Amino acid sequence: MSHPVLDEVRRYLGRGQSAPLAARPAVPPARQANSTSEEIELLLREIQALSGSAAHMAAGDLDAALVRLVQEQEIKKACLWSTPRLADLGVERRLQDLGVQIIPGQADKRSLAQCDLGVTEVDFALPETGTLGLLASAKKPRAVSLLPRVHLAIVHPAALRADLQQVFIEAKDQHYLVFISGPSRTADIELTVTLGVHGPKALVVWVMDD
Amino acid sequence: MSETPTHIEFGEYSRRVPPNIPAAVQQATARFLEHRQARVDEMPQWEDLRQAASDLRLHTLLHLDTYLEKLESRVSAAGGVVHWARDAAEACEIVLEIARAHKVRRAVKVKSMATEEIGLNQALAAAGIQALETDLGEFIIQLAGTGPSHIVAPAVHLTKEEIAALFSEKLGVQAPADPVQLTEIAHAALREKFLEADMGISGGNFLVAETGTLVIVTNEGNGRMCTTLPDLHVAVVGIDKVIPDWESLAVLLKLLARSATGVKISTYTSFISGPRAVEGEGGPREFHLVLLDNGRSRLLQDPLGRETLKCIRCGCCLNVCPVYKNVGGFAYGWFISGPVGAIFSPQILGVEAARQLPFASTLCGACADVCPVKIPIPEILLHLRQRVVEGDEFGGPAVARVVQVGAKTAALAFGTPWLYRLGARLLPWLSAPAQRQGWLAALPPPANRWTKVRPFPAFAARFRQWWKGRHPRKQP
Q1: Quick one: closest CA in B to A127, which residue?
Q2: B61: nearest CA partner in chain A
Q3: Which end of chain B is less crowded, N or C, counting CB atoms within 10 A of the terminal residue's CB?
Q4: Predicted pLDDT of residue B1
């Protein structure tokens, strides 16, 4: 196949066509996981260091935690992912009981931008860097973790991965993945750290045991 | 700002830099470096990662054609459209063509060095399309109508008072000189722009050939906004940004943010393979990738010069550079500054156009010590200094005749033992009358360019004699 840019690349590499591919250099070994409780501890610590709020709780604590969140953050409207686990936890119903209006996650972007809260359930969590990994599908709309003022992410311990390498092995064939490490942040004005410049101003992470 | 320059006058530009710029730049770079050091100290495998990153980047460059072909086929398979641009004009034309076909009126942009390089904003504006920078720092300098002073912190040279005055004037709001409130004003102004934009334009930090994935790293979330909300996403990315696979990506991502601002990871990293898969998930309906050459392929022919293309644009070499820290980004005359700018621009534009940049360095080597992909910047600077004197494929020597003759004479003298010995005997004797306490206060032209600024050490000892006296040859 003739191609202007590729032809230039080959010309300057001094050959007419592709050379046989040499073995790709090896990469250093991935980080190993500690015990689940240590990994959860580390995840919470790292998210807090990034100005996120993070807690480890049992399913029974959910109601009290939601009441506090809705009060403190003055949540009026919320959108959610439609995952089985969020359904099991009954997050939508509990929010409605607290007087929060639910906007469908698949609503148009202007409606989602009106939401105070977006609720997701993370696909991956990386304790070392306090990172949440989220995939996308019709039941997991991308903007739910982006447009609302507050992002509540539920983490199931089964989502913990020790290293980027493990996440990438599982996620590389997905068409979309986003890593979120703390709330939206800028230091572009006189190096003063300011939260919520474009994305959510608050990131709330609850690790929930089975 | 940032039309392709035909001449970069580093000396002149650096004299015009107002003193507040180096002061602000030094504050930012000191903080980045302090945080970076903390990250390096907590990672025992840091040097292994750097070596692996360097090997991976070089490997990719040596097989760039193969990886680009793979990338193209995977992006297409994912439903994206790949375009190839030989130069800046072609790249701008491709983006304009896509915009026209979709009747785009408003575009939102993620901070991108590639689009700065090709002058895309000017091209779009000329076609009546508003292209709004959405990174807070870039938004501020776009309002101010200037260029970036640091590749990671573009508006670091402006004070909150200056930004408040700028917002009051350009946005028609009462803006107090408070970073938090100024950020809120920008948030409100830009939120509506994201929602109404017809096109999102981004660059890219990496392109993963294995799956045709575009990787974008930001802290503010504007990268996600621009690549999620508009129906159309166009990415303009240099061909040097391709990497083999996700294993390579993990290595490079571990190094990038830690080297750049000293955080473990940036707030948001998006991994985008083609457009949205289903209606309900949101995200663009169409994804276009413009692969930009613009002189990069030519660098591949030079085994030393090609190492420049390993760069992942972390900005760490700027942060450690004593020259950069005293002049800031503007003096380098193009979108890329600091040590990496001093090796990139002369190779892309030719040494005639950027003839002073290879000399804008003390060769202290700090840049090479911190570079996460181990670019031998000082060696490339020396290599380019030689090209400045001898000429390159763009043109002949780019220095005055006297410097060429001087360089040739020096090369001859240092390369010919008897001539060197003769000089070593003659110079102390010749310069003795001008010598004052071991220093020469004035030298004849052209060497007076040195002595105008500081005295020159007198030719005191004969190196060979000194060496013999100090280091008697050891018996094997």
Answers
A1: B264
A2: A13
A3: C
A4: 42
